[in-house]
Amino acid sequence: MSDVGGAPSDGAGSDGARSDVHASGETDGFTGPVSVESSLNLPGVPDAFQRLWTPHRMVYIQSGAQPSDEDCPFCRAPEMSDEDALIVHRGTHAYVLLNLFPYNSGHLLVCPYRHVALYDDATAEEIDEIARLTQTAMRVLRETAKTDGFNIGMNQGRIAGAGIASHLHQHVVPRWATDANFFPIIAGTKALPQLLGDVRAAVAAAWPA
Ligand SMILES: [Zn+2]
């Protein structure tokens, strides 16, 4: 699974995406000259969403580079505005933000402020607050998004799939009975019906004071 809320880092977010993508590091022939064809000739129905294409992320994905402490998106996010960093709640030792590369709408990450990699390196206060914020995240997502279930967990270490392995973060991924469709299977694409800013505003507004 992977990471990062609003921080504009490549590193953010790709645990799962990476495995979806090209585990072999190959680029499926996209490296050569590209021919462009009018979309009018292609199947598909235009909609209201814009697509953010991020081929630059392939450099990160393929190199396995990890951000330095100075570049860490989870360290940088709290220095930004809630809107810019997609933060929904700031606690004492930990905070909650939207994953910039969500598996599902409302995919939240619970992070300690401290740049610490492993769960067993976190302090008792950090662990306690991460746990309580995770519970609150579940309640808020049930209320705002009528969630049917959740995937919750941490990837510890690069080998375990952590996109930002150097900064601990717990994933809270809402699930719905109808959220699985053929897109991720045949196209490596996830259908996300809500824009991140709208989700952030709704979750932040519903978060108990
Ligand atoms: Zn950090």
CATH superfamily: HIT-like
Classify the secondary structure makeup into a structural class. alpha+beta
**Main sheet makeup:** 5 strands, antiparallel
- For the record, the CATH architecture stands as 2-Layer Sandwich
Supply the number of structural domains.
1
Bound molecules: zinc ion
In the CATH hierarchy, what is the class? Alpha Beta
What's the count of strands?
5
In round numbers, the mean pLDDT is: 77
Provide the low-confidence segments as ranges.
1-30
What fraction, in percent, of the residue positions are helical? 25-40%
- Write out the strand line-up for the largest beta sheet, numbering strands in chain order: 1-2-3-5-4
Shape: globular
- Rg to the nearest angstrom? 17 Å
Order of helices and strands: HHHHEEEHEEHH
Total of DSSP H or I helical runs spanning 4+ residues: 7
What's the gist of this structure?
The chain has 209 residues and is α+β, with helices and mostly antiparallel strands. 28% of the residues lie in helices and 12% in strands. It binds zinc ion.
